[in-house]
Design brief:
Blueprint lengths: L1 H4 L23 H6 L16 H12 L2 H13 L3 H29 L3 H8 L4 H31 L35 H10 L14 H18 L3 H11 L1 H15 L4 H9 L9 H15 L5 H6 L8 H34 L13 H10 L5 H34 L1 H8 L2 H16 L7 H15 L1 H29 L5 H24 L5 E2 L2 E2 L2 H15 L1 H12 L5 H6 L10
Antiparallel strand pairs: 1-2
Helix pairs in contact: 3-10, 3-15, 3-17, 4-13, 4-15, 5-13, 5-15, 5-21, 5-22, 6-7, 7-9, 7-17, 7-19, 7-20, 7-21, 7-23, 7-24, 8-16, 9-17, 9-19, 10-17, 11-15, 11-17, 12-15, 13-22, 15-16, 20-23, 21-22
């Protein structure tokens, strides 16, 4: 069947040696000179100025919110050390091979996820569309995390950090300041917990009680989108320069916080929880599904980000080195962040005379409760708080840049004529995407926003992603074919992919992803926030959100087959041109 779906005489899309200019277009020089007056009307695709910019973009995404916010949260939620085992298994079997595969098709086709999948296997163009849908949904609530970071960042400039004591107007009688080896009273909350829930979020009793707008957070959310817009408005030429700061500086601060956390009393208790697995938890499918979603979130596999980044590469770039570098940096950074997070949690456990797993209820706000509590005890706590939340802001922006660029690039690739006629300038397209995403992010900053946030993250980023990753690897490895993909890689890098990559693409990755997806459906449990259970209508809303991406793949496949020439499936299968991977 594969042979009937692919064009075996595919031509190169780009020349082996593109122009030398740093931001050279894929158009010829003659065309540029002929239309110099209307150069802004033509959709142009620049190259990265150098290899460092590409690697920084990939590393900036992987060492972003996926590692610093999501990894500690899911690791704590999944039992610490029990999470690390499936995490590294899935990284080796699925993460690294699929990253290599995505960089290959992105660089070879010079298109974002929709355009790349359309050329590789038009029957599965819906997989590319699904990745863009997920990226758009994630952009709406990832911006909210950045808004929280901005709020904390500016609050840190006060003479005394407000989460250090129980003497503030938002504190209740249940507020309790931890001190050495005194057990936390039942039903009490630390100042950092109350600051996050009662001051920052002003949480309502449930999603059915939306309340009003948190105007302080609304201002921070607008600020977040303004930063994203001005980083992306000139395409990769502007975002690449911003990443020199937002990617490199956080690494220095991560090392500083690692050193500080290891000196805290009780750090060894937290590290023991982090590295010592509870073998019983490995029997739970949710731990494996969480590990898979974390791999894909951090590396960007199945979200379209890496395909998009690679589409700006020169044709002969050796992306094998990039794959290994990004994967290694991602894994090492995850461990470092995990170490300083759990060292800090261990210190809090000693203070509260409790076990590590009972320090705080697992919630998306884990980072905004644990770190501020540790920072409040440090000398010059305001300085440490400013540095930490500046680091977190940079990492959040890196993730947001990549997610929004996927949406922008896909719209440019999919509707070049409309963009040329209606929006004219790239800046207007970026502005439209940012404004629409800002609008859809507003429900997250109501009093019930944290419940909406948890719902979106559960269904969009966790439940859907293994499904999407499975169909992506099937479309490329099975329908397009390992042989053709290997030949394409040989054209670009001068060498064929190893047996390890080919085995994972063809057998190991699809089998593991299918097993994880089926297990997640069989053992499905509705999302919760602390002790709060979502009503039935909210779960229906969650499945509707998930379906926005899940249905893209079968729906587009059916439409493609129906529109194909021929009256029967057999006749449709013979019409190769309908399913060719064409590189114009």
């Amino acid at each position: 069947m594969t042979a009937t779906l692919i064009n075996p005489t595919m031509k190169k899309y780009r020349p082996m040696r593109p122009p030398d200019e740093d931001t050279a277009s894929h158009e010829s020089c003659e065309e540029e000179e002929a239309d110099v007056e209307d150069h802004h009307l033509k959709p142009r695709r620049p190259f990265w100025a150098n290899k460092i910019q590409f690697v920084l973009a990939c590393v900036g995404y992987s060492v972003g919110l996926g590692n610093v916010w999501r990894f500690p949260y899911l690791c704590y939620k999944s039992g610490g050390g029990a999470f690390l085992i499936p995490y590294f298994i899935i990284l080796i079997v699925c993460g690294v091979p699929m990253l290599f595969m995505e960089l290959a098709i992105g660089q070879y086709t010079a298109h974002g996820p929709i355009g790349a999948l359309s050329q590789i296997c038009p029957l599965f163009k819906g997989a590319g569309l699904a990745s863009v849908v997920i990226s758009f949904v994630m952009s709406t609530y990832y911006a909210v995390i950045i808004a929280w970071a901005i709020y904390y960042f500016f609050t840190s400039f006060k003479s005394e950090v407000p989460w250090a004591s129980c003497s503030n107007r938002w504190n209740t009688a249940h507020c309790w300041v931890p001190f050495h080896n005194h057990t936390k009273p039942n039903g009490s909350q630390t100042p950092t917990e109350q600051f996050f829930e009662k001051k920052v979020l002003n949480v309502s009793p449930g999603i059915e009680f939306p309340g009003g707008m948190r105007w302080e957070l609304a201002a921070c959310l607008v600020c977040a989108w303004v930063l994203v817009y001005f980083a992306l408005w000139k395409s990769i030429k502007s975002s690449a320069k911003v990443r020199y700061i937002t990617t490199t500086l956080p690494f220095l601060l991560i090392i500083v916080f690692l050193g500080r956390s290891l000196t805290l009393e009780g750090a060894n208790v937290g590290l023991r929880y982090f590295f010592k697995p509870d073998w019983e938890l490995l029997k739970q499918s949710r731990v494996w599904v969480n590990a898979a979603s974390q791999i894909f979130n951090s590396i960007g596999v199945a979200f379209g980000s890496m395909i998009m980044f690679a589409s700006y590469n020169r044709f002969d770039n050796n992306f094998l080195h990039d794959t290994l570098a990004v994967s290694l940096i991602n894994a090492v950074t995850s461990l470092i962040v995990g170490i300083f997070t759990f060292a800090t949690i261990g210190n809090i456990a000693i203070e509260q005379n409790t076990s590590v797993k009972d320090v705080i209820a697992d919630s998306p706000g884990l980072l905004f409760v644990v770190y501020p509590q540790a920072i409040a005890k440090m000398p010059a706590s305001q300085l440490w708080a400013v540095l930490f939340f500046f680091m977190f802001l940079c990492l959040g922006l890196n993730s947001q840049f990549a997610i929004v660029e996927v949406v922008v690039t896909s719209i440019q690739d999919g509707f070049p004529e409309m963009i040329r006629k209606r929006l004219v300038y790239h800046e207007l397209l970026v502005l439209c995407v940012c404004v629409v995403s800002l609008f859809f992010g507003l429900p997250h900053i109501l009093h019930s926003g944290i419940y909406v946030f948890q719902l979106m993250d559960y269904y969009a980023a966790s439940l859907s992603i293994t499904y999407l990753a499975f169909f992506e690897v099937v479309a490329i490895a099975w329908f397009y074919g390992i042989g053709r993909l290997s030949n394409n890689i040989k054209q670009m890098t001068g060498q064929y992919p190893s047996f390890y990559f080919r085995f994972c693409w063809l057998i190991a990755a699809p089998a593991l992803l299918l097993a994880l997806w089926v297990a997640s459906l069989v053992d499905y449990t509705p999302p919760t926030y602390r002790q709060y259970s979502y009503p039935a209508w909210a779960q229906v809303l969650g499945w509707t959100i998930a379906s926005l991406s899940l249905l893209c793949i079968p729906a587009y496949a059916v439409v493609t087959v129906v529109r194909a020439p021929g009256n029967t499936i057999g006749e449709v299968s013979v019409n190769r041109n309908q399913y060719m991977a064409q590189r114009n």
